[in-house]
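pasting for ref
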Amino acid sequence: MELGMRKKLLLSEIVRNLNAYLLGSDKLISKFGNLSSATDKPQQQLTYVISAKYLKSFNTSNIGACIIHESLKELCIKEKSYIVTSESPEHMFYTIFMECYQNGNYETLSSTRDSSTIIAPSAVIHDSVVIGKNCKIMDNVVILPNTIIGDRVIIKPNTVIGGDGFQVKNLEGKRKVIPHVGGVKIMDDVEIGSSVCIDKGLFGEFTTIHNETKIDNLVHIAHSTVIGQSCTIAAGSSIAGAVTVGNNVWIGVNCSINQLLNIGDYSLVGTGSVVIKSVLPHKKVFGSPAKTIGLVCKCRADIISSDEQLVCSQCDTRYAFIEDHRLVEVANF
């Protein structure tokens, strides 16, 4: 799910007043994004690159169009569409995006609120917020536009959901925090502690917290991150932008997880860890930078080596390694 532009723009329209020209076929654009942005409309996405390495990644992607510097023109292929400029592609990209934002060219949600939900008098619920059944929203909670709250969700005091993330760019000679046009989706049976901050998606995507995940106090979850089902995130942890956390993941107190990483199912991040590389499923990591120190069963107990087999120390589930050092249950091997 994502929020797009109210009016799609042709690439030929976009370049009309720019120091740029169109190379390749004209296309309708309904959203902006980085190469890593999640979208269900890749062919309608405009992105940008600043090096040959990333242009090659764009050329093999299913993203529709890209802004490039003219020095990279020789690497373009006929199947793709490009906006070619002698200026900074990044600056041009964010200038176009800001103009669309300032023109109000972005979708918003229609507000709904189930009567069974309890909302404290001091909570602030903005327009364009959807709230499900039997939720409890406590004192001084702020829920900003384009937020979806599922059923039986608990949000404790002083939490802010749906604010802009922290994306700073130089535009028109000034450093600016880029406005975010996506949203936040909190699914059923999630519990969110006090003074938590969950930022909305940057380019129309939704920061998403899946069913039955429990979040402790003073946690920050940045823009466009996706947290899986039944995760536990302890106090003081910070998860940067566009991180994907799998199901049944445990993140300990005061952990930091770098942007764009994948944290695999059933993994465990130990207290105070700084994660700068993706973590495979069932791995236990710890330290700064975090390193693998063991393996974790789906029941949360340690996996140990016994009689040349990998077996859970509590539930006796057996595991085996497959390619890329991934761990699977033997029954599924």
